[in-house]
Design goal:
Number of strands: 15
Radius of gyration: 24 Å
Order of helices and strands: EEHEEEEEEEHHEEEEEE
Strand order of the largest sheet: 1-3-4-7-2
Largest sheet: 5 strands, mixed
Number of domains: 2
Strand content: 35-45%
Length: 297
């Protein structure tokens, strides 16, 4: 099915969300003007339209409110459900009031209802929109797959498609004050480098990556890991069951830890050390040439 074939109605049920261009674009030339900017319809060059279809686009584009200078906006039109797979097909204009053409990379978009509750969120590669000319509005369909939808029913009206600006901020290291005070700058830099080189997290993914394991003199084991938060919001962990697994695939230690709660900021990795006392250790001679830590299934 061609994307543009979904645009058939001139009724608009969605509203607008707008951000400053600096929030998702680096180095874009900025206008010093304070005049409002009208955005002209811009169709993807690979779209071939009938006269009737083009009329619908122009009607919808002409109804859009002007933008202020240096803004990027998503203007919601309406939503359909894809019968074959249950995806929500969210139709919207991607709008820019900048004077020059722009391209935007991958960014998480959130579908919000009239009260601001998140109904769906998903990462999209906005390079697919192509070069969006200055002062223009380009129609597009954003397909939210079923596993990225958190609501049972489509929103009726006044819903909004919004940029999750936090998703474009590079993932970084976050440390508790005790770690900040206890490590040298060289050690902090080394941990930051490890975090920088880790595989990118999926949106809303939380995982655990070990970086140091040591046997204790009393027979216990200390495992230092990164708690990695791919959410756009802070997470708080109160109780965490964890298994320590060695290179042979054997469970070396198993326990549940009360963290009281431990907070991990959005889009960060936090180092933490979990100490398994001797009574939690199940394998006396583990092979730590390779090891993992995981939540029991």
């Amino acid at each position: 099915m061609k994307l543009f074939s979904l645009f058939k109605k001139t009724d608009k049920t969605g509203s607008d969300s707008t951000i400053d261009s600096n929030e998702i674009l680096e180095g874009a030339a900025r206008s010093e003007s304070t005049d409002e900017v009208e955005t002209a319809l811009s169709l993807h060059p690979q779209w071939s339209l009938s006269q009737e279809q083009e009329y619908v686009f122009r009607f919808l584009a002409n109804e859009l409110e002007p933008l202020k200078p240096n803004q990027i906006s998503l203007s919601g039109i309406d939503i359909d459900v894809e019968p074959a797979n249950g995806s929500w097909l969210v139709k919207a204009f991607f709008r820019s009031s900048l004077d020059q053409a722009i391209t935007v990379g991958s960014v998480e978009l959130m579908l919000l209802d009239a009260e601001g509750k998140t109904l769906a969120s998903q990462e999209f590669d906005l390079n697919e929109l192509g070069d969006v000319p200055g002062r223009s509005a380009r129609p597009w369909v954003f397909a939210f797959t079923k596993d990225n939808i958190f609501a049972e029913a489509l929103p009726a009206e006044n819903w909004k498609l919004a940029f999750n600006v936090q998703s474009m901020v590079p993932h970084k290291l976050e440390m508790e004050q005790a770690w900040e005070d206890g490590l040298s700058q060289e050690q902090k830099d080394a941990l930051a480098k490890v975090v920088e080189n880790m595989p990118k997290l999926k949106p809303r993914e939380v995982n655990f990556a070990g970086f140091q394991v040591k046997k204790q003199e009393d027979g216990g084991i200390a495992a230092s890991i990164f708690i990695r938060n791919g959410h756009s919001k802070q997470i708080n962990i109160e109780k965490l069951p964890l298994e320590l697994v060695d290179a042979a695939g054997d469970i070396v230690a198993r326990g549940s830890f009360n963290l009281g709660p431990l907070s991990v900021k959005a889009n960060t990795s936090k180092p933490w050390t979990f100490i398994y006392p001797k009574e939690m250790v199940q394998k006396e001679e583990p092979d730590f040439s390779r090891w993992t830590i995981r939540v029991p299934q």
